[in-house]
Amino acid sequence: MLWALFIGLFVGIVAKFFMPGKDPGGIIVTALLGVAGAAFGHWIGLQMGMYQEGEPVGFFTAVIGSMLILFIYRLVFRRTA
Q1: Among 10, 34, 49, 59, which residue carries the largest CB count within 10 Å?
Q2: What interhelical angle do 27-48 and 59-76 show, nearest 10?
Q3: Is residue 81 part of a domain?
Q4: Cα separation of 46 and 52, whole Å?
């Protein structure tokens, strides 16, 4: 579980690097977005036939999934100024 959170944090940081900007939330939100993005990326990979059930998600797919989750997160929690 801790390993998944550590990898999720790293993937979340990479996703934020590719999508800079102000986001509500800090390091915990980044880690959760990374874990959720990796899971989402794995699901996409399964649907596209890139992975079989039980195979770990690839780093590239995890980052793409995290970027999609981050994009959705920004749409939902957009700050009005």
Answers
A1: 34
A2: 120
A3: no
A4: 6
pTM: 0.71
Q: Which two tokens stand for residue 71?
A: 């994009």
- The whole domain housing 24 covers 2-76
Domain count, the chain: 1
User: Using CA atoms, how far apart are residues 15 and 10, in angstroms rounded to an integer?
Assistant: 9
**Per-residue model confidence (pLDDT) at position 36:** 85
Enter the tokens of residue 48.
Answer: 């596209």
Grouped pLDDT means (10 residues each) for the chain, 81 residues:
70 79 71 81 81 72 83 76 48
- Is the distance from CB of 4 to CB of 35 less than 8 angstroms? yes
